[in-house]
Amino acid sequence: MIRPILPGATIGVLGSGQLGRMFAIAARRMGYRVATFSPDEDTPTGQVADLEIAADYHDLDQVRQFAQGVSAVTFEFENVPAATTAACAEFAPVRPAGEVLHTTQHRIREKTFLQAAGLPVANFRIVRTEADLEGFTGILKTAGFGYDGKGQVRVKNQQDALAAWDSIGRVEAVFEEFVDFECELSVVAARSLQGDFVHYGVVENRHANHILDLTIAPAAVPQQVADEAVEIACAVLDALDVVGVLCVEFFYTKGGKLLINELAPRPHNSGHFTFDANTTSQFEQQLRAVCGLPLGSTQQLAPAAMVNLLGDVWANGEPDWIAALADPQVKLHLYGKPEARKGRKMGHITVLGETAQDAAVKALAARARLLKAVPQ
Ligand code: ATP
Ligand code: MG
User: Fold this and answer.
1) For the whole prediction, is pTM greater than 0.70?
2) Is residue 176 lining ligand 1, measured as CB closer than 6 Å?
3) What residue numbers bound the domain in which 141 lies?
4) Is residue 213 lining ligand 1, measured as CB closer than 6 Å?
């Protein structure tokens, strides 16, 4: 029997963005301490952590020192090198395990794993040479280091394929068929050390410029589709032997099929609403799983919606926070990032409503109020 890690212990987080910040807030609420490791300083996670270490992920001496000071290591950033998690594992359990990260951080490994497990993915082609580009169209995606649609090019005509591959630097890639979807869905789920499985139901995600824009929870899909999505998610967490939180992103095709788009072995943007809407947030759940505690109830207390606040919201100067908060249902989350760049995730708004649709309307309206009118 592996001993649980109790309150008072320090949990290490690789990565220092908003996911780590919200994890740290949940962890501190339960009396844990948090140490974060990333190359940066004054980070969203560091601002609320007990300890912030700024060093390169490849600096394994620093990594080992970090791991020696914590009771367990988790991560919030997907592109942590395998050598980094391996160095951590010499001193503390890494949860989910480094192998999970290794599989999911690389599109070729991820898709190969999913196919081998008999799970549904869109048709794809592995691209390593020019010849692999022939006779295919769709979306060309770099195998590694992609996020928020970076490293992706839409290829509508075969003759554009070579130029597209050039534009992503001729690196290893996955050429994926373009999926004509009805909508995009996701399931955020968690698995404990003992193999218990819980999930937050099926939510709908709308993207703008390849970045998540709006999450509607629950999604308005037939019950049987929701059940199937949860079943697939359960199979993924089992097959990967996940201890922690993992999100499965789906395409729900016009033909009524569920295809896995990708996996994220950590809390996910589409689960941010759980902070305000559920008995146990995805961040507290990550903590519970990582520490070997019993998992918490995932009950959703009311239908909810979440809208992301990108740097674009600062286009006309400081956003009008007062106007957004005029609706008392609006919950504002900001990540403490000093510089509001276009396309950068700066925060989000969650609204609970009578229905998820009603919550979405209110969340979008609140965001619209943020943009101050430009003075004439
Ligand atoms: P993130 O990590 O933020 O989810 P990412 O860079 O890993 O982003 P993907 O999830 O692969 O990117 O793609 C981002 C979005 O682009 C998808 O959610 C979807 O809206 C669109 N997209 C990606 N692949 C396809 C496809 N094969 N067919 C249709 N649309 C797609
Ligand atoms: Mg995605």
Assistant:
1) yes
2) yes
3) 123-176
4) no
Last residue of a domain, one of 144, 160, 176: 176
Look up tokens 């999100």; give the residue. Answer: 247
User: Quick check: is 106 in a domain?
Assistant: no
**Residue 102 located in a structural domain:** no
Tokens representing residue 292 in the block: 């070997």
Cβ-based neighbour number of residue 211 at 10 Å: 16
Give the CATH number, domain containing residue 239: 3.30.470.20
Residues 222 and 353 in one domain: yes
pLDDT higher than 60, residue 116: yes
Does residue 360 share a domain with residue 246? yes
Q: Which of 129-133, 250-254, 305-309, 333-337 has the lowest mean pLDDT?
A: 129-133
* Nearest in space to 315 (alpha carbons), one of 364, 368, 372, 365: 372
pLDDT at 101: 96
Longest dimension (CA), the chain: 68
147 lines ligand 1 (CB under 6 A): yes
Q: pLDDT digits over 248-284, tens only?
A: 999 999 999 999 999 999 999 999 999 999 999 999 9
Residue with CA nearest ligand 1 atom 22 = 210
